[in-house]
Amino acid sequence: MSSKWKRKGGQKFLMIDGAVFRSAAWKALLPAERVAYEELKWRYDGTNNGRIGLGCRELAELLHAKSKDTASRALAALQEKGFVAKAKPSGFTLKHRVATEWRLTEYRDDVTGELPTREYVRWKPPLENKTQSDGSDARSDGSDRGRIIPGANTVHSPMDRTVRPVSSKSQSDASATYRYTIGGETNA
């Protein structure tokens, strides 16, 4: 590789794009899930997307987790929120132990050439199962609804009809909008 493309000092760094960092999916990640994402991104070298190998047992060791289920849940959450996609499932036989190969959705797949899907941008948090408001979160208790308060400006605050303009003069009338002075004279 030419020295034109190398960083000074030659040290590797990890950059998280602003679109990822500000997404609702990123904000919903738990710490173990963020560490799993950072580990997958650390293993990405610019040419191996779709072949990033990381198994649950290895990730559990990196997380200092007591169980590989923690790592498995972290990878499943990353997949559900759209940060990664499983490119090749793992396999285990007596002769071969193959870790799952992952693809980061923010980059082009280097194996198939598939364009970035960025599924994390479209992820929305699940809606809470809320049936009907109990009134505690409402702005008004409803007792003042339909009641006319003496001295209130009822012309500008109708409660049961469409709002009508107070003035018949158009707001875009040049004489009302663009008044300025030139040489001490008022021009309309």
TrEMBL record:
<feature type="compositionally biased region" description="Basic and acidic residues">
    <location>
        <begin position="136"/>
        <end position="147"/>
    </location>
</feature>
<protein>
    <recommendedName>
        <fullName>Helix-turn-helix domain-containing protein</fullName>
    </recommendedName>
</protein>
<feature type="region of interest" description="Disordered">
    <location>
        <begin position="125"/>
        <end position="188"/>
    </location>
</feature>
<feature type="compositionally biased region" description="Polar residues">
    <location>
        <begin position="165"/>
        <end position="175"/>
    </location>
</feature>
